[in-house]
Design brief:
about 5% helix; three-stranded antiparallel beta sheet; mainly beta; about 45% strand; single chain
Length: about 120
């Protein structure tokens, strides 16, 4: 049975993108991966914090803390918001997924397969 649902790609961006784009001229890598297809690696070029469109995305950078990508073919919107707090003691390995509630709780899972709930105010578990 064939599904009629649309499959949007998962987007991965260079982890320090928000620091890199503050340089006068910079490049940030981006990878998109759709199920059952090869990954597509692209570079976003920045000049004075203005982004040039990539092969698949229209890119705008309204501020140094927000990056907006719109897929040229699907019109799907992706937004990346830079962190304003970094809690390096929550996971000992890479973080695979994260979500933060408006109520101040964060939940994340790391490469160590540990699911943790923590305070977004101070990082306490």
């Amino acid at each position: 049975m064939r599904s009629n649902s649309i499959s949007y790609p998962m987007i991965t961006i260079q982890s320090d993108w928000d620091q890199v784009i503050r340089r006068p001229v910079a490049n940030v890598w981006l990878t998109s991966k759709t199920i059952n297809e090869n990954s597509v690696h692209q570079t976003i070029q920045f000049n004075e914090s203005k982004a040039s469109d990539s092969q698949d995305f229209h890119i705008t950078c309204p501020s140094n803390y927000y990056l907006k990508l719109i897929n040229k073919s699907t019109k799907q919107l992706y937004g990346f918001i830079a962190p304003n707090h970094v809690f390096s003691s929550i996971h000992s390995k890479a973080v695979s997924s994260i979500d933060v509630t408006t109520g101040g709780l964060g939940v994340s899972v790391g490469a160590d397969s540990k699911l943790l709930v923590w305070s977004s105010a101070d990082g306490s578990i």
